[in-house]
Structures are given as C-alpha cells and as structure tokens.
Design a protein that fits this description.
Orn/DAP/Arg_de-COase; 416 residues; 21 strands; binds ligand LLP; globular; alpha/beta; 11 helices; TIM Barrel
C-alpha cells in the first residue's frame, strides 16, 4: 500500500495535492512519500521478527540523500555498489557498520575507502576480486570482512536484463567452486570470512526461485562448516517484485515470513536482505505536463515534458508503468502513446494509454520511485528533474532541478 490517492477529484501524495507540487516546482518532478518508504521498510523489518537480521536497502534503486536519511533514521543497513554510493550513505547519516558492498568490479580506491570507514562486509564476486581485497587490506594493515556472492544457478523468471542468478550471468562465483575459494579466504591473514550472499534477479513475482536459492545456500553453509569455515551471516539479496500493472508478487511480509520460516532453526545465522524496488518503486511518482496533443494518420500522441532521460525503464526494458491524470477530466478518453521530446523513437513513457487529456494538464507516472531518477541522464542536454519528498502535509525540495549551466559544469574549451 502507498500514500498516493485521489482526494476530492485530485491526486494527492499523503496530504499534499500533486497539482500544488507541479505548480510550485514545475515539471518534470519526482515526488516521494516518506510515509510510504517507512511503511515498506518496516514491512520487511517487522516480518523478520526476533531472528537476528538486517535490512540493507539497495541504494541503486534511489540514492537521494533524503531517501537515504529516512532509511538511516529507521536503523537501516545499506547495500552499495560504488564509492559514490558509499559517500552518499555516509553523507546521509548512514551507519558504515551496516553497509555491505556488492558489485563485480570494485576498484582499489573503493576498497580502500570502504576499509577506512569500516563497512560491515564486502560481497566479493570473483576470485580475482577477493585477491584484490586481500592485497588492499594487507597494504593498509587491516582485516577485510568478506562474503562470497555465489551464483546458485536458478532461473528468476524475470526480464533477461535484470536476471542475475544463472550460470551465464556475470555475477557471483559458481556455487560448485565456492567451497575451495572460501577455504582459501579463511586462511588469509587479512580476510575475515563472514557471509555467503546471493542476488538472483530483480522484479521477481514468484517465491519459488528465492526458496530454491535458499536451499542451495543452506547446503553450502553446512558444507563449509564441515570444512572448518564458519559462516555468521547469510545475505539473500534483493529482487522482490512490485505491482506495476497486473503482477501479483507476494507482499514483503509474506516473502519474509516464508523465507524466515525456513531459517528459524538457524539462529546462528544473521539474515541480511537487500530490497530496493519493493521499498521504493511505489513510494514515488513522476509528475509531467502535457505539452501538445498530436494526431498522425492512425496514432495519437500525448507529448509530455518528461522523457526517456528522466525515466528510461519503458525504453530500456519495455517496462509498463501506469500513467494517470493529476486532476481527471470527465471528457471522452482517447488512445495515446505518451511520449517525450527526446529525438528517439524509443522515447516513450507508455504506449496505448486511454486518457482524457488536454495540453497543459498534469499527468503522473506511477511506481517510479525505484530506478527512476537514479537511471536518469542529461541526454539531449536536458536538465535532470527536481525531486520532492512529501511528509504529511509538507513538501520538501530534496533535489533542485538542474540548471542550464550545470549541464557543462567541469567542461572546458581549447584555448586556441
Ligand atoms: N542487491 C544486488 C546485489 C543487486 O544487484 C540489486 C539490484 C539489488 C540488491 C536490489 O534489487 P531489487 O530489490 O531492487 O530488485 N534497473 C533495473 C533493475 C536493476 C537491478 C539491479 N540490481 C530496473 O529498472 O528494473
């Protein structure tokens, strides 16, 4: 459940009218609901009950400082994939000892930075990366806490671009090779083996791949124990899907309950989760204004001021996100492709949408709180959108719209 709803014929974010936000801050603008973020985060945390656990929000879904700060205040952990994300979490008041560092290509500088600030764990993704972490830790005279991301070879049944747990994907270590590598890591003076982790994909709408992966990881943890390698935490990654259209993913509490039930006797293991989308997607919308309506021979276009550079999910993954009027009209509906001003045929936010609209109306693209702003760009030299967080009856500007000058910040021209 989220806190975006129609009240007296107008779309509201909590107690703030979205029309007021659009008029105050212009469009395109992302709007996040604090109450929704908190509700979703707590759904994960509460369902884990008393079992030792840590919800490590996946920063890549939405890394605005205000969003990270809301999580930090809840006591959240964080899953990061770059030095930039690490800096953001610290800037937002996140606790470094609750950060896990994922990603297949950590640089020496990133590893150094993470060791200096004392993160909870490196989720190493290959033998070569593990060697590098060991070397950097040695050069700093530190001990790096590590987990190995294993690839359990399960089919997540999601879009191929966001499926990560199959043998042919670039992620993780083949589960059959894991024991040997763990044994090696266990002997290194500058590594401290702590965990096993996996992440099998994103936008999963079925529990069975998660359960299959969990079964395989439990077998591995027992094999490791027999080989003298003690594992203190199990990180099950993120990946729980959300309802964009007619998907029926399990509720976070159902997902957590089913997984935690399987682990109830493993009190020796702290369980980590890395949800991103399930917390943020439906905690955000993208407000946009209709610039023009245009009719070609057999197609009608609703041309809006947001584009693929603001929200690339439709163009990149053929993703479907609901597009609704901020103040619905009574008039007749027509079928539109909702498109942006970018010079690409692939620049659309939604196709074949039944809308009753006129130029000047505001629309909201729903479920855009995750992988919306964080995947935005300056393509076509478009400034990136403003971001607002609503908290009850108050709207806070949490990222200014970029300025034209910021478009060339850091650039220079040749002197002669
Ligand atoms: N942990 C790791 C190691 C990940 O790679 C990811 C996402 C997550 C956690 C969080 O997954 P989530 O709970 O959000 O599914 N841009 C794509 C999604 C890419 C996800 C990449 N990894 C999209 O817009 O659908």
């Amino acid at each position: 459940m989220d806190h975006f709803s129609y009240q007296n014929g107008s779309l509201f974010a909590e107690q703030v009218a979205c029309k007021d936000i659009a008029e105050s801050f212009n469009t395109p603008t992302y709007v996040y609901s604090r109450a929704t973020i908190e509700r979703h985060w707590k759904a994960f945390d509460d369902a884990a009950g008393e079992h030792p656990h840590l919800i490590c929000y996946a920063v890549k879904a939405n890394s605005n400082l205000a969003v990270l700060n809301v999580m930090a205040r809840l006591g959240s952990g964080f899953d990061i994939v770059s030095g930039g994300e690490l800096a953001r979490v610290l800037e937002a008041g996140g606790d470094p000892t609750k950060i896990v560092f994922s990603g297949v290509g950590k640089t020496e500088a990133e590893i150094e930075y993470a060791l200096e600030v004392g993160i909870k764990c490196f989720n190493a993704e290959s033998e070569a990366e593990l060697y590098r972490i060991n070397q950097v830790a040695e050069s700093l005279g530190k001990i790096a806490p590590i987990s190995l991301r294993v690839n359990p070879n399960v089919d997540a049944g999601t879009h191929p671009y966001i499926s990560t747990g199959l043998k042919e994907n670039k992620f993780g270590i083949n589960i059959d090779d894991a024991v040997e590598l763990f044994k090696w890591a266990n002997q290194q003076k500058h590594l401290k083996v702590q965990g096993v982790d996996c992440h099998i994909g994103s936008q999963l709408t079925d529990l069975s791949p998660f359960l299959d992966a969990l079964d395989k990881l439990i077998v591995l943890i027992d094999q490791l124990s027999d080989s003298g390698v003690t594992i203190s935490h199990l990180d099950l990654g993120g990946g729980l899907g959300v309802t964009y259209n007619d998907e029926t993913p399990p509720h976070p509490s159902e997902y957590m309950t089913v997984l935690m039930e399987k682990l109830s006797h493993r009190i020796d293991l702290t369980i980590l989760f890395e949800p991103g989308r399930a917390i943020m997607a439906n905690a955000g919308i993208l407000l946009t204004k209709v610039e023009f309506l245009k009719k070609n021979e057999d197609k009608s276009f609703c041309i809006v001021d947001a584009a693929m550079n603001d929200n690339i999910r439709a163009s990149l993954y053929s993703a479907w996100q609901n597009i609704i009027p901020v103040v619905p009209r009574d008039g007749e509906v027509s079928n539109y492709d909702v498109v942006g001003p970018v010079c690409e045929t692939g620049d659309f936010l939604g196709k074949d949408r039944e809308l009753s609209v006129e130029a000047g109306d505001y629309l909201a693209v729903r479920s855009t709180g995750a992988y919306g702003f964080t995947m935005s760009s300056n393509y076509n030299s478009r400034v990136r959108a403003a971001e607002i967080m609503v908290d009850g009856d108050t709207m806070h500007l949490v990222r200014q719209r970029e300025t034209i000058e910021s478009l060339w910040a850091g650039e220079s021209i040749l002197e002669d």
